[in-house]
Amino acid sequence: MTTTTESPRRNGVDTATLFATRDAVKAQPELAAFQFRASNTWVTGTHSRSTAADFHGALQEQRHTEDTVLDFDHPVVLVGTDHGPTPVEYLLHAIAACLTAGIANIAAARGVELTRVTSTVEGDIDLLGILGLSDGSVRNGYEQIRVTLHVEGDADDETLRGIVEQSRRRSAVYDVLANPTAVAIDVVTG
């Protein structure tokens, strides 16, 4: 007779695996070195397509369960064909998703049952920078990003706000956006 035991889950998070992973990395810190990758191909005009397929982590090459294909484009008003969000919109989705994942994990670890997590993210860009019309006084990227999170669960306001704050402190995307990150660009021609 086979007995099946289910992993304890809270907020859809397998908390036993979450704590086991944390313990494994604490015992063997080299497991924490990950490299994520993006592969992008120009389609036409401002339309390009990326695939998220593989990455390196836990001391070995890894592959996502399924490849994810993402289309990027500009809207018609910005000389695109609108086959997908702009690259800067993906940044907004990335910080929303990263903060949300952190909230779910941290709440689960603290024994808090979430009932709702939604967010809206806004970023302001002045196109004078991108179009080269500012004599360098206007940056190309976002001038400011604002995240509004709505979080509900079986904990008080202070606890829920604490979960969000810990998620912000642990968010890789927040860190990348809030702190300068070196970007090296290699060009291969031919």
Supply the CATH superfamily name of the largest domain: K homology (KH) domain
CATH T-level topology of the largest domain:
GMP Synthetase, Chain A, domain 3
Structural class: alpha+beta
Order of helices and strands: EEHEEEEHEHEHH
| Low-pLDDT regions | none
Which CATH first-tier class of the largest domain would you pick?
Answer: Alpha Beta
- Sheet-strand content, in percent, reads 25-35%
Sheet having the most strands: 4 strands, antiparallel
Number of strands: 8
CATH-defined architecture of the largest domain: 2-Layer Sandwich
Question: Could you give the distance between the termini?
Answer: 63 Å
Give the radius of gyration: 20 Å
Number of helices: 5
* Number of domain units: 2
Give a quick precis of the structure.
The chain is an alpha+beta fold.
List its salient traits.
190 residues; alpha+beta; globular; 8 strands; GMP Synthetase, Chain A, domain 3; 32% helix; single chain; two-stranded antiparallel ribbon; four-stranded antiparallel sheet; 2 domains
